[in-house]
Specification:
Strand content: 25-35%
Distance between the termini: 133 Å
Number of helices: 4
Shape: elongated
Number of strands: 10
Structural class: alpha+beta
């Protein structure tokens, strides 16, 4: 008898076996690098506490720490005046052909550097006339919403105009970063760092013109029974308005 052979028929799949035991947990990977960790060594280094508050956090990541010149400075007053002077032209507002830069010692302004000129409407800086500085605090009458007359205080920088401006950290501003830029510039007559946020300040560098009038900045008004306008103004010195001006 002859036997026939063929392919075996496939059977149904068997039942799924039991799940095996879980494998061992792998080694923990390294933590991510914090945004203030400039060298990536995962150590809170001293120079990475950018705002010097003793903490290492996001405030050290977004802070503007260096002075940067405004991108529009190429079109500012100083550059226009220089360009015209090269052509022998000296329009009003620009330093004249016989202009000389005021000299003196760059001095940080404080309540001690201002004194009443005797009129009750002006605080001079630096010293007794004729040694007065270019910066003064002037008091102007104004009528408030109640119809009462009070005083407003204004910083006035005689002949001053902004030659350049940028931003820096409050820490740098308080520690003389803005005035250092003025010291390094022989044409600079004054600088002011103005607080913009809790972390940043604007830094303005001033040049001088003998035909340009004066730079003015409002700084306060009378708070009846509390502060005079001049008190509000001088209180801002060293914190919200850090001035350094050449004193004769």
């Amino acid at each position: 008898m002859t036997l026939l052979s063929g392919c075996p028929l496939e059977g149904d799949n068997g039942n799924t076996g039991a799940t095996g035991e879980a494998g061992a947990t792998g080694a923990t990977g390294e933590t991510g690098v914090n945004c203030w960790d400039l060298n990536g060594n995962r150590v809170n280094d001293t120079d990475e506490d950018v705002n010097k508050d003793g903490l290492w956090n996001a405030n050290d990541c977004s802070l503007v720490t260096g002075f940067s010149q405004n991108s529009t400075v190429e079109l500012n007053h100083q550059h226009i005046c220089e360009a015209l002077a090269n052509l022998g032209q000296y329009p009003e507002g620009c330093p004249s052909a016989i202009h000389t830069v005021p000299t003196g010692t760059l001095t940080k302004m404080s309540t001690a550097t201002f004194f009443d000129d005797g009129t009750g409407n002006k605080l001079q800086s630096c010293g007794i006339s004729p040694s007065n500085g270019l910066l003064s605090i002037n008091l102007r009458d104004f009528v408030n919403s109640d119809g009462n007359t009070g005083k407003q205080a204004w910083f006035e920088l005689e002949g001053g105009y902004i030659a350049s401006q940028g931003t820096m950290s409050i820490f740098d501003a308080v520690n003389g970063g803005c005035s250092d830029l003025c010291t390094a510039d022989s044409n600079c007559i004054a600088s002011v760092a103005v607080r913009k946020t809790s972390e940043a300040a604007s830094c303005r560098i001033f040049y001088h013109s003998d035909t340009g009038g004066k730079y003015e900045r409002y700084c306060g008004m009378d708070i009846p029974g509390v502060y005079t306008a001049s008190d509000v103004c001088t209180t801002a010195l060293g914190s919200n308005a850090i001035w350094a001006v050449r004193c004769p």
